Model the fold of this input.
Amino acid sequence: MYRGEAAKVLAGAKVGERVRIVKGERSYEGVLMPRSELGDDRHVVIKLDNGYNIGVEISGARVERLSPAEPRRQAAFPEPEFLPEKPEVTILGTGGTIASKIDYATGAVHPSFSTAEIINAVPELADIARIKARVLFNILSENMTPKHWRRIAEEVVKELNGSACGVVVAHGTDTMSYTGAALAFMLKNLTKPVVLVGSQRSSDRPSSDAALNLIAATRVATSDLAEVVVVMHATSSDEACAVHRATKVRKMHSSRRDAFKSINAPPIGEVREEVKLFGSYRRRSEGEVYADTRLEERVALFKAYPGVDPELLEYCVDRYRGIVLEGTGLGHVPEQLFPAIERARDEGRAVVMTTSTLYGRVDMKVYSTGRRLLNLGVIPGEDMLPEVAYVKLMHVLAVAQDEEEVRSLMLRNLAGEITPRTLPDTFY
Amino acid sequence: MYRGEAAKVLAGAKVGERVRIVKGERSYEGVLMPRSELGDDRHVVIKLDNGYNIGVEISGARVERLSPAEPRRQAAFPEPEFLPEKPEVTILGTGGTIASKIDYATGAVHPSFSTAEIINAVPELADIARIKARVLFNILSENMTPKHWRRIAEEVVKELNGSACGVVVAHGTDTMSYTGAALAFMLKNLTKPVVLVGSQRSSDRPSSDAALNLIAATRVATSDLAEVVVVMHATSSDEACAVHRATKVRKMHSSRRDAFKSINAPPIGEVREEVKLFGSYRRRSEGEVYADTRLEERVALFKAYPGVDPELLEYCVDRYRGIVLEGTGLGHVPEQLFPAIERARDEGRAVVMTTSTLYGRVDMKVYSTGRRLLNLGVIPGEDMLPEVAYVKLMHVLAVAQDEEEVRSLMLRNLAGEITPRTLPDTFY
Done:
């Protein structure tokens, strides 16, 4: 991990080893830590016995290797015992804060996702279900791609068609709602709960939301629900978790524990000691679940704003089969973009309008800009979140037979992503 | 306006004329309306005497011209009289719902923005100030461009350095917050209030918010404030308006009257009968206001999401001097974008990170993705809204001498756009 001058001075010492760095009259003793990502090759970092890390400038320094790295105590936890009458819940690890543990010897983050480790960290889970945990992969959620969505969908199907009563997917929070939407569109004939859960604060912090979120998610996985949902803190206290429909939820704060909000729809449930489900939802039933994991990846999410360069949209029309516009207000974009949108129509691209306000519904009949865009073939995205419309368009372009079917599927509520218009909502 | 077959049948009849359309045994009499934008050339639209519009299919029809269009009664309102002791407030019209009036004779929307028309519509304004209204232009706010921002800034300066006590800018709501941010960065040594106001429902609707918003905005224009603010409904009832700092406000609903919300900061005031200002704000003072209207227009606002095409960012690096990233969570983007960001740095582009969560602050030191991005020279956007950071970067790239000054200005609070970190906010 160290390179250049630092590597020379270390003379083969490995991260995790106990070393002494002697520099003139001074010496520093501790565990060699990984190089700081922002560090140059002139410093090495050690953790002192008092717990602090220090960086030592290595010019004129000499390193003594004291003792090898302590072997990591994997699976040091006892195998948990579960009551046979409890339902079985599978927890799939994909990465993110909730699945990470900081190794205090080396400062490295590594996945902690064996069943034994999870039950050791959150013993309450054993009272709810027979937990079966495994890691699919371990990535930060900003690095999730459609390839990962497909893999998760396939693994969820295996579990649901096996002995699991429900599945919990532990996931980084940054793009959890994209993955949730993708699962909601891909999973067909869903008969059991699929619950995404994450944490905003890692489990080494006193304010961590990891345990409460995981307990609530596991409860929901044993509930009567047969939908894809996100379960996260409902408030900034530790009182309750909210159950959000995966196609209606969005991360609305960078750091708060109650960052996830249902937009344009209320949450569909709340978890305290028990799971309470509200309103209408799809109920648990019998039958095989399957996944249609086809996704057209040549889709772009395009934000419109004053001064936006029409050439950028022309570039998208050249490259992509579908474009979701994040417009303004009721569904508008600057008229400088109209020529590109007209060409998109002429070249058979699907163009869907959503709004940067996030809240509220697109209504393109109120103002002339909207009417002109409708006339250019733009599909109004109703009250879909821009991010959800993007994932839906990837799905729809892959499964529809022709342009007409693309349009009709985009306008139809497939997985709770469009709230039905009960009243004409521009009329109140 | 009509063309093809419809134009032939109309035989020269103009929109606004009274006509009779005879079709076999039936005939329809009314005022000829403009062609529907979505209409073909086989229908003409007339407004019947009962007020309804109908479209008549013209095959086999004959049109009789009954009487010419009534001349539009411009300036039919009496010139208002103002009390000399009242302060003077200039209202500048730029377009949008608040400045539009539907002509019931022809259905056309036209600006209604003479002082006399405004006082006729909202007589309460005369109790607050000597109103002086004029139209700068009349466009839908989705069509605002940096060119319009400059024009508004220049006109505002003229008014403030003249006899006006404050200026109200009537503006469409879609991009009002962009214009507000642009004015906040461009106007220097501001000594009086600049108030943007709009309406979400046009004044022909019973639920219109136009009058209350305009009254509240005019009150704020006479207040002690010397900042650029947005004044709009505070709730969905007609009780109060909120005063939002222009660099902290965002349109958060497509249709509600209380769509505008201050993000990451409370509103700085409330207007009921009186204007109440809260917290710390810049106070009215003496002195010349001036505008620095330089803007670098080669700036893009780039949204990052799972599956985003790195080529799209490469294209932006080729074309623009500045890129504001709308990342995820604490300020992350997929690592597939890193090569483009590295090239941006190498080619001297400014890259600024903001977050799609809107609420909360970017903190790029918590996770490895953020640290790697900092190492690639990305400037953390603190708690700036993505749209505000975009406008600010246009301003900063135009005024800064070098890359170092771009960075330092982007990190400095220039016009209320960055909330100071009082406590390290990842530590709660």
Summary: Residues 299-411 of chain B form a domain with the Rossmann fold fold (CATH 3.40.50.40). Chain B touches chain A through 75 residues (CB under 8 Å). Residues 366 and 427 of chain B are 11 Å apart (CA to CA).
